[in-house]
Amino acid sequence: MKKTKEKAAEKPEKIKKNKPEKPEKIKKNKPDKPEKTKKVKKPEKAKKSKKPGKSGRPGKPKKLLKALVVTAAVICGIVLTLGITALIINSYVKKKGGERIVSAEEACALKDVDCIIVLGCSVRPGGVPSDMLRDRLTVGVDLYKGGASPKMIMSGDHGREDYDEVNVMKRFAKDAGVPSEDVFMDHAGFSTYESVVRAKEIFGAKKVIIVTQKYHLYRALYIAREIGLEAYGVDAELHRYYGQLMRDLREIAGRNKDFFGCIFNVPTTYMGDRIPLDGSGDVTNDEYTDTY
User: What is the distance between the alpha carbons of residues 17 and 196, in angstroms, rounded to a whole number?
Assistant: First the structure.
């Protein structure tokens, strides 16, 4: 059995006929198509930024800044113009008003003076005249005693029950020996302008002597000149006063205010009935007169 198997195994293998291999088809080499050259993109031009001032956010801050600068320049120009104008008016009022400032001796030599006007000033609690008011009253009484005029007008603020300049002023004159009937009170002399205008319109004065400190005289005399009242001024600056610099600065504003007040003929707060100076000054007394 083994032998038969070995024989069987020894059978020669069938020789496979080698079939001739089919020749590979030779691929014709087609010429390569030339590659399309890519167009080189031109570098993009940098976009120009929008000019400031034109529409667009970048221009807004600069536009706003420009507007602010222009506005500030206009405001500065207006302020400068107003300041220069105020100084010119101030100088003009001083020049015109200063032409009628005289000494006490010259004032006493004047003829036919209707009255001496003492302009009011602050009063301390208890009815005590301030230093400035005391000096005005002292000079006014001296002029009266020197024969400058037979009558006096104490013009000041008595617009409230708890504040009374004019009765304090009259009491001072009476204590100094001036008869009560020769001292009139103008209870509505709330300002320099009103004191001067009312002296002419209410008391009928035509020629007066005004008493106050020199810085104040310029304005009072200018007002009198503009309303047609013949007025002369006597300086009552007997001392140096605390805070004078601030008063001088405020007076510039006051001169400008009354310069235009005279131009436009601004009415006073009160007018009232005429009070002739040839009568008695006691007609101007009130319930507070005897309390000071």
Answer: 154
Phi–psi pair at 148, nearest 5 degrees: -65, -35
Assigned fold of 95-291: Rossmann fold (3.40.50)
Residue with tokens 């302008």: 193
Domains in the chain: boundaries: 95-291
Model pTM score: 0.77
pLDDT tens-digit map of 138-161: 999 999 999 999 999 999 999 888
In the structure encoding, which two tokens stand for residue 45, read together?
């031009």
pLDDT tens readout for residues 86-99: 999 999 999 999 99
Residue 63 CB coordination number (10 Å): 12
Please classify residue 247 by burial: count the beta carbons closer than 10 Å to its beta carbon, then call 0-12 exposed, 13-18 middle and 19+ buried: middle
Q: How far is CA 244 from the centre of its chain?
A: 20
